[in-house]
Amino acid sequence: MDEINDKKLIFVFTGPDGSGRKTVAGRVGALCGLQRVLSYTTRPSRLYEKDGIDYHFITREQFIEAEQNEEFIETLEIDGVYYGIKSKEIDATFQQHPYVYLILNRQGSKLVKEVFGDKVIQILIYADRNKVMSRLLERGDTTEVIYKNLERYEQEMGYLKECDVNVENYELDETVEEVTAILNTYIK
Ligand SMILES: Nc1ncnc2c1ncn2[C@@H]1O[C@H](COP(=O)(O)OP(=O)(O)OP(=O)(O)O)[C@@H](O)[C@H]1O
Ligand SMILES: Nc1nc2c(ncn2[C@@H]2O[C@H](COP(=O)(O)O)[C@@H](O)[C@H]2O)c(=O)[nH]1
């Protein structure tokens, strides 16, 4: 266990919605041996999403109860939808794996950095607005969801300079290769 405690690192994938964070993080995570800690959300699942894979989908009442019990390390509200990561799940994952990863927006990434300091590596994945829009359309998101996401584009991109790593995601295989090579420099 001491060996895990010495090595433990949290890789936070951030960046604009639709830039490909989840796809890149999933592939890099598998290649680098990172374990994902999933967020909880009160948002209804989208057609392509699965409970326990993309998020833990819970009711607003369940979220509020967990929040009152101080179970979340941080929470986020966007347009009446709540998101959060449970501290206990980060701790439990660290009992088994030295390296975990999270997918968070700018606010969550910043807060996790404040809590865990230099144990946190922030990786911003990005693509231009047009790419984001076309990928989300192809994924089947509604135009309403896409326009809501794009409203946050500049804000999320504005975090680029504060991240340890930033990679443009155009050719997926190249992005995965580049991010994997960088993350391997952090993993001993
Ligand atoms: N380099 C790429 N080239 C083409 N398509 C990609 C690339 N990277 C990701 N995609 C596709 O773009 C879509 C959005 O990717 P993904 O879900 O990983 O993004 P995200 O940033 O996690 O977005 P969100 O937070 O909205 O779920 C997916 O359908 C994914 O398969
Ligand atoms: N700070 C946090 N941000 C989170 C969390 N879970 C997801 N997110 C981010 O929210 C937006 C919107 O997500 P969507 O899936 O509804 O499009 C996106 O940037 C996510 O990465 C969390 O627990 N904390």
By oligomeric state, this entry counts as single chain
What is the first-to-last residue Cα distance?
A: 16 Å
CATH superfamily heading: P-loop containing nucleotide triphosphate hydrolases
**What ranges have pLDDT less than 50 throughout 5 or more consecutive residues?**
none
InterPro entries: GK/Ca_channel_bsu (IPR008145), Guanylate_kin-like_dom (IPR008144), Guanylate_kinase_CS (IPR020590), P-loop_NTPase (IPR027417)
Domain Guanylate kinase-like: 8-184
Catalytic activity: GMP + ATP = GDP + ADP
Family: Belongs to the guanylate kinase family.
In words, what does this structure look like?
The chain is of the alpha/beta class. It has a single domain, classed as Rossmann fold (3-Layer(aba) Sandwich), CATH 3.40.50. 46% of the residues lie in helices and 22% in strands. The protein contains 9 helices and 9 strands. The strands form 2 sheets. The chain has a 5-stranded parallel β-sheet, with helices on both faces. Strands 4-3-6-5 form a 4-stranded mixed β-sheet, with helices on both faces. A hairpin with a 2-residue loop joins strand 5 (72-78) and strand 6. It is globular. The two termini are 16 Å apart. The mean pLDDT is 94. Bound molecules: adenosine-5'-triphosphate and ligand LQESDW3C. Adenosine-5'-triphosphate binds next to helix 2, helix 6 and helix 9.
